[in-house]
Write a structure and sequence with these properties.
By secondary structure, the protein is an all-alpha fold. The chain has 2 domains: 5-169, Serine Threonine Protein Phosphatase 5, Tetratricopeptide repeat, CATH 1.25.40.20; 182-287, Cytochrome c-like domain (Cytochrome Bc1 Complex, Chain D, domain 2, Orthogonal Bundle), CATH 1.10.760.10. The chain is built from 16 helices and 2 strands. The protein has a two-stranded antiparallel ribbon. A hairpin with a 2-residue loop joins strand 1 and strand 2 (117-118).
């Protein structure tokens, strides 16, 4: 499998151009089992870093399974951190399933990460279904949130990877459902909702009667409007598949945390997890209409 161009900085830039490597690092890069053995027999530290990576990370990155096996047999720490993360990140990032399985069999952490980017997220990004299955079966957290709150399921749906998405859904994904809020709207603070809307939404949305779309659709009369119905908007498959009009509870669910409640949506923001702030905002959105939808009884 080819390495994603997006992952080249994550992987390649952590192998020094001007190497301070000892002989064992050169041997690991080349997959030279005899030279690795000689270096270890001469007293080399099996987990020594060359300033960026350990011998095991280098062997895995270059795809040398026999060298990786030898290093592990000689005591290499499969979870040792490098500037590219532990060796498992190199296996996933290069799509080397044989090396990934080897590391997992030797107790590598399936929830390994580098700077908040988990191995499972990388596997989904690379569309490596075998890697996804190996990690999940070894205990990877299918609900883990990486940078910016993205989950493996959100990534899979966003990329149209239905097989991976279905697999994740069948292996423990939890789609949160916030508590109902309709009965609280009558007592909501609309002005505070306006403030929250202005702070969070105006960059991406217009809300004027004759306004157009921006990055996101115009929100004038959004309450009670058919979902994914604005002309000239390219909606996600996730939103196109959600039928009906925008009810108060639909907005409550969507705004809670879009990437969690509606995986694959293009609105990749943290949402409004605070219930009071969310209720106030929905109450304000209701007012953006010539004929606001009636409020439910409080």
């Amino acid at each position: 499998m080819r390495v994603s161009l997006l992952l080249i900085p994550l992987l390649l830039l952590h192998i020094p151009i001007v190497s301070h490597a000892a002989a064992i690092h050169d041997a690991a890069m080349e997959g030279d089992v005899a030279a690795i053995t000689a270096a270890l027999d001469a007293g080399a530290d099996v987990d020594e870093s060359d300033g960026s990576a350990t011998p095991l990370y280098l062997a895995v990155f270059m795809g040398h399974i026999e060298a990786a096996k030898l290093l592990i047999e000689r005591g290499a720490d499969v979870n040792a951190q490098t500037t590219g993360g532990p060796a498992l990140m190199a296996a996933v990032g290069t799509g080397k399933i044989d090396l990934l399985n080897l590391l997992l069999e030797r107790d590598a952490d399936p929830n390994s990460d580098r700077d908040g980017e988990f191995a499972l997220h990388v596997a989904v990004t690379l569309d490596c279904f075998d890697c996804v299955k190996a990690l999940v079966e070894a205990g990877a957290d299918v609900n883990a949130k990486a940078m910016h709150g993205k989950t493996p399921l959100h990534l899979a749906k966003n990329r149209g990877q239905r097989e991976i998405a279905d697999y994740l859904l069948a292996h423990g994904v939890v789609l949160p459902t916030p508590a109902p809020i309709s009965m609280k709207l009558a007592s909501a603070d609309v002005e505070k909702g306006r403030t929250e809307y202005t702070r969070r939404c105006t960059t991406c949305h217009d809300a004027e009667p004759q306004g157009g779309n921006k990055i996101g659709p115009n929100l004038w009369s959004v309450v009670g409007r058919d979902k994914a119905s604005m002309a000239d908007m390219r909606y996600s498959e996730a939103l196109l598949g959600w039928e009906g009009v925008w009810t108060y509870e639909d907005l409550n669910r969507f705004l809670f945390e879009p990437m969690l409640t509606t995986p694959g949506v293009k609105m990749e923001t943290p949402g409004v997890p605070d219930e009071t702030e969310r209720v106030n905002m929905i109450a304000y959105l209701r007012t953006l209409s010539d004929k606001p939808i009636p409020l439910p009884p409080g």
